[in-house]
């Protein structure tokens, strides 16, 4: 196989567009398995055009993988929000080891768990998470550069300790759920918050939300009236879904829309188009298995 690959790479700088397009299609057909070979070819090439075409090929292969993984995640029921966030992360950071992200979240979870006391109230549990998340680990909302795309990539948020409303809320809720604390995302217009849910079977549906949490504002606890006021400021009717936990699919779509907004603002048309393809991969209702 290597001899054919070597021959194809040598043809990448062919001035005949039909030939170079055919060569690219042939190389793309090999998929992820040839990335190592292409990267090695890039290192040994002194031709700028060939290097550029190799970079484009590697990106196309990696992008295709991300799109397929996201589609599979969606078609499998979109159960694991962390997996969905890692797939999106791979779009911008294809070489990032997902285990590093998992380990960083486990470290925060472990710190909360070590300080947990049996029979804590919902408010006490949230205050403990807040202490560990914001004081011990130093997470905060990125108010100075809110449109930075890195606010939406989980590896960068865990590294910089800064994120937007949704990325901070997602990490916060993942940690809570790993500790069997029922905290879920709520898809508010122009904001994203969390809800502490009473999951007892005998709790009436309209009393299940114990309170709300603003992960962007150091885990501030607030009530339904504050959500009412917020919607009133936006001149929006208080619709039911603005108050209730949303699905993992809603979260991933919103992360992707935030990325679209960031790339539109920075004028990166290529990334805007690619994110549109990722949104397309998770369109419609998630299949029920």
UniProtKB/TrEMBL annotation:
Reading the lineage from the top rank, the first entry is Bacteria
Task: Give residue ranges for domain Protein SirB1 N-terminal.
Answer: 100-257
- Identify the InterPro entries for this entry: SirB1_N
Family, similarity comment: Belongs to the UPF0162 family.
Q: What is this protein called?
A: Transglutaminase superfamily protein
What is the species listed in this Swiss-Prot or TrEMBL entry?
Arcticibacter pallidicorallinus
Give the source lineage, highest ranks first. Bacteria, Pseudomonadati, Bacteroidota, Sphingobacteriia, Sphingobacteriales
